[in-house]
Each structure stands twice: as structure tokens, then as C-alpha cells.
Amino acid sequence: MRSLIDILELTTEELSGLISVANDIIDHPQKYAEACKGKKLATLFFEPSTRTRLSFEAAMYELGGNVLGFSEAQSSSAAKGESVADTAKTISCYADIIAMRHPKEGAPLVASMNASVPVINAGDGGHNHPTQTLADLLTIYREKGGFDNLTIGLCGDLKFGRTVHSLIAAMSRYKNIKFVLISPEELKLPSYVKKDILKKNGIPYEQTTDLLSVMPELDILYMTRVQRERFFNEEDYLRLKDSYILTPEKLETAKETLSIMHPLPRVNEISVAIDDDPRACYFKQVLNGKYMRMALILKLLEVEV
Ligand code: CP
Q1: Could you read off the pLDDT of 280-290 as tens digits, one per residue?
Q2: Each residue of 45-59: pLDDT tens digit?
Q3: Ligand 1 centre and the CA of 202: distance in Å?
């Protein structure tokens, strides 16, 4: 039995396999419509979510399965002090697979060590978000045709932005990748990600506070929201929240082939005037997330179609 806590638990071959299944689901959805008949997915969300929770649920319904769960800690027995370990043991009695989001880093890992069914990390604090990375990878694959030879700008809250940490880990395994890390000084990429992923694998990167100066070199621009919920101090959040606002004028020097990505939700980081730009990919990421979660559920439940 396998869980998915960190994106690096999947080999590049397995990632290719998931992309292949997701593309097949897009082309032949009927083939998969009863693949998980009789199976149940539990969504245990101790933190707010729109895309991740509902795309997991849509994914399971489109596979013919069923869904149960909760969308806030207050409506579960966590509010009475129940531990993550006990919650995982309990839900294992009701469901065949669990997707868990939690504000504490490592909580889904603890759940996976106590559950008797696969556990998927649906975002743990400011740490990781591997299934957003699956959505991002399918989007990059469909936009760029592959993963090699890309210069990827990551912009915004690189400190708390868990989607950025997981995406860097995943993309670092491909050839000729360069990262451009664009953030305010206070929101730079954590040193453990630089040390354990970038430096360890000899991946080139540059750090800057100036988005405009690096715009012409980017193949992908991955914008992120400043993560208000991770700040200890509201004043710091208010000072930093609008550090980067992408507008059509700022794209004047960008490549025609640029892909503009964002895990969403967006607050102010991308002007709605960009939504109709053919380079905008963020709503494609939303849809791709559902297909990749379908492929992941099939893999972890070992369902052959
Ligand atoms: N991208 C993402 O995780 O969105 P939600 O917080 O809405 O799930």
C-alpha cells in the first residue's frame, strides 16, 4: 500500500505514467466512469480549500466512486482534541483512500503512518502540496510538450508557498532547468529547499526582487499569493501582499511562448485583464488538477483500466 506525501516519492517514470493516464482520461472519460465503483474517498480538510477538495471529490465521482469527509477542523472531532493518528485510524474503517489537508507540516505523514489505507497529502502548512504539482506538471506537459530546457520564474511568497517547494522538487529532476526566484527579501525560498534540492542537484538559480528585469528570459512565470494565514503579524502581511501584481504592461517584454501559471486562489497577483491572454494557464491548471487526481487515485488504489 502506497501513500503520497512528497512529490519525490514518485519516480519520473511514474510521473510520466500518471500524465499518460490523465491524457487518456481527457480523451476517453467513459472508459473510467466505473473504475472506482464501490470505493470511497475521504477528504479530511482541516484548512480551507476550493480547488483541491472539490477536484478530489469530482475526481472520485467521475471514477464512479463515492466521497465522504469534512471541510473544516471545527466540524470534526479534532475540535474536541482528537489526534491526527486517531483520526487516520478511524477514517480507515470507513474509506478506501484519504486526502488530507492540514495546517501543520507533517500531519499527512503522521496520518499515513497510522492509516491502513493510502493517504494523499493535500497540502501541509507551508511545506508541500504534491497534488498541485501533479496539476502543474500536466499543464507544463500540455503547454510545452515536455519538461526539459525550461527557465522557470517563481514569483511572490516563496517562503510559505508550499506549491513552489513541491514544484521545484519535481522539476529539478529534468534536464537543463533553471529557476529564477523572484520575491521580497522576507519571503525568499527557505534555505532547506535550496540546500536539499537546488544545490544538491547542481540546478542553476538566481534570486532577485525585480520581476521586470528577468521577464524576457522566462519560459514559465509561476505567480503565487502571499500566504496571509502563515504570517504571525498582520502588518507584515499588509506591507508585502501586493509586492507583485502582474499586468498586461508588465508582459510587454515577455516571450510570446511564455506560460503564466498560478496555483490559485489569486488575490491581486494577476490582473484579471490577463485572463484572456492566450499565455494564461491558471484555469487550465484547475482542470488538469482533476484529471491528475483521478490518475493518482487509480494508481494508489491499484485499479487497472
Ligand atoms: N491550489 C490550491 O490548493 O487551491 P485551494 O486552496 O483552493 O485548494
Answers
A1: 999 999 999 99
A2: 999 999 999 999 999
A3: 31
Q: Please, what are the domains in the chain?
A: 7-128+289-300 (3.40.50.1370), 131-285 (3.40.50.1370)
Q: Alpha carbon 157 to chain centroid distance?
A: 14
Q: Kindly list the catalytic residues.
A: 51-52, 80, 101, 129
Q: How far apart are alpha carbons 171 and 178 in whole angstroms?
A: 9
Please indicate whether residue 122, judged by its CB atom, sits closer than 6 Å to ligand 1.
Answer: no
pTM of the model: 0.96
Q: Count CA atoms closer than 13 A to 87's CA, side-chain side.
A: 30
pLDDT digits (tens, 9 = 90+) for 290-301: 999 999 999 999
Q: How far apart are CA 133 and CA 289, in angstroms?
A: 9
Q: Rounded to whole angstroms, how far apart are CA atoms 154 and 170?
A: 14
